Amino acid sequence: MSTDRPPVPLLAVKHAIPPVRAAVVPRDRLESRLDTAAKLTVVAAPAGWGKTSLVSRWAATAGTPVAWVSLDESDDEPVRF
Which domain of life is it from (predicted)? Predict the structure, then answer.
């Protein structure tokens, strides 16, 4: 972690739940697993496997509070969080 530069605030897009697209295929089995998940659920898979589509669809109908954080290789400074 570098201390030479001030921390950059997280972009709003990194903690906004993406909208559900109309053409998303329902994944009922995986959505039901999210319903029975713990206080924190981490969804990890290769790019293009439908993580965002799955979780945003589930979040839209969950009926429970949902916090969303999207991270990538540029988010490597703990001070930002």
Answer: Bacteria
- pLDDT at residue 2 tops 80: no
- Global pTM reads 0.68
Report yes or no: 61 and 22 within 8 Å, Cβ to Cβ: no
What is d(CA 18, CA 60) in angstroms, rounded to the nearest whole number? 10
pLDDT at 67 > cutoff 60 = yes
On whether the CB atoms of residues 2 and 55 are closer than 8 A, the answer is no
